[in-house]
Amino acid sequence: MIGKYGRDTIFGALVAGFFLLFLFVVIPVGIPVSAGVRSTALSPAFWPRIVSALMVIFGLMLMAQGILAARARPAGNAGSAIPAAAEDLVPSAVARARIAAAMVMMFAYYGLVVTVGMTAASIIAFVGFAALYGERRWLLLGVVGVSLALALTLFFTDVAQVPIPSGTLWD
Question: In the list 62, 72, 77, 151, which could disulfide-bond 12, CB 3.0-4.6 Å?
Fold first, then answer.
């Protein structure tokens, strides 16, 4: 049976390999970039490349962590800091409920973007997700949610000159 560290190593290799394929095959073939792009950061392929490169790095880090932890682990679990039973823990009912709620909230966010626009939907989603995972400083949530959404809106509309959805409610 493959232990936790072996699974980390295999999963890290799969993630790194998948995103290397994405970085060098899918993005160049699937994302057209015109020659008239003024800045590399404004290219439609820029952020997919950044995310793919980060995922390759994270996959390699997970591989290294798995390899190093497997080497440091005593043979036969003797004196291991991680009990064998703890390796196969299933998330608690609360964690599963939060995951399900987050999935429902993502669909609600998508619907809100169409209705109230990206900025208002992002404020609501930020506050909702933070509250779902335990944050209760409502004033801070409101200030950060509004500031972050407005900053991103101003960046995309003024700097990158990319229109964002304004929603059907305001039309």
Answer: 62
